[in-house]
Design a protein that fits this description.
MetI-like fold; 74% helix; 303 residues; mainly alpha; 10 helices
Length: 303
């Protein structure tokens, strides 16, 4: 699948952008030219050789704070995505095979989680468990998990009715063997699409919470926190919110672009075998017709 995604221009662009964001998350604190918490005597300074993106209201280097805050934003979004994947995809696959009771319970839980406003619920949980980003992301991942549950369940239902799965059940194969052998490979493409989309949603959620000051307390730098602090000084630096806002927008756009590329590739992969079977069936039909047609009588035959 990775090779087919790289064959698309949109897939290459999305992976290139996300690779840059990942490098910033890993090496951002090391690449920062100055300490992100160090203040100076030049608050709200314009861009210069010493401060490429200027300074904030306390004289801290904006570029250093952006690079240092990238790790929190990336890790938070990944926590949301993989928590939702673990909580949602596994019950979604098993709900098709473990009987009506398990199916009914998991469906009702998914409906309940969908009905909860995840941002308000995350704020309430943080207020109860403490102001930590990990707690907020785990709760948010649980609230996003119905997306993976429904995607995995729908894909599993489509495969479960296939003849080879029914034959495996009749032969006495275990549920785990059927999932590993027949179902997981068919369910993986739609789950990959949902995962890429959820990473983008995670960036928006992390930025929203840190914008409100939830999860990470100042002066620790985050993209959402930088955006919130810059909005208070628009009259002095109208361009200041552009850098964190642009990073958030580009990252979310790249995640959605990657999801579209994976969807296109999986759709082509799903249509290709069917097209091949149709072509082979057409050739077989033509061959049968040719064999069944009587040979034409020779002209001027014997009388």
């Amino acid at each position: 699948m990775v090779r087919r995604v790289l064959a698309l221009t949109s897939g290459r662009i999305a992976l290139a952008v996300l690779t840059v964001i990942a490098v910033l998350a890993v090496f951002g604190p090391l690449l920062a030219p100055q300490s992100p918490l160090a203040t100076s005597d030049h608050p709200l300074a314009a861009a210069s050789g010493a401060h490429w993106l200027g300074t904030d209201y306390l004289g801290r280097d904006v570029l250093s704070r952006l690079l240092d805050g990238s790790r929190v934003s990336v890790l938070g979004s990944l926590e949301v995505a993989f928590t939702a994947l673990a909580i949602g995809a596994v019950p979604g696959i098993l709900s098709v095979h473990l009987g009506r009771v398990f199916e009914w319970v998991t469906l009702r839980l998914a409906d309940t989680l969908v009905a909860l406003p995840f941002l308000l619920f995350a704020v309430a949980v943080v207020a109860l468990l403490g102001n930590g980003l990990t707690q907020a992301m785990l709760v948010t991942g649980a609230l996003v998990s119905p997306l993976f549950y429904r995607v995995a369940r729908a894909a599993t239902l489509a495969v479960a009715r296939s003849p080879y799965v029914e034959a495996a059940i009749i032969a006495g194969a275990s549920t785990g063997w059927i999932v590993r052998r027949h179902i997981w490979g068919k369910v993986l493409p739609p789950i990959a699409v949902a995962l890429a989309q959820t990473v983008g949603v995670g960036f928006v959620i992390v930025s929203s919470l840190t914008f409100l000051g939830i999860g990470v307390q100042p002066p620790a730098p985050t993209w959402g926190g930088l955006l919130a602090s810059d909005l208070g000084y628009l009259s002095h630096q109208p361009w200041a919110p552009l850098a964190p806002a642009l990073l958030i927008m580009v990252t979310v756009w790249a995640c959605n672009l990657l999801a579209d590329a994976v969807r296109d590739v999986s759709g082509e992969a799903g249509r290709t075998p069917a097209a091949g079977r149709g072509a082979r069936a057409g050739r077989r039909t033509d061959r049968r017709r040719t064999e069944s047609d009587p040979a034409p009588a020779p002209a001027g035959g014997a009388r």
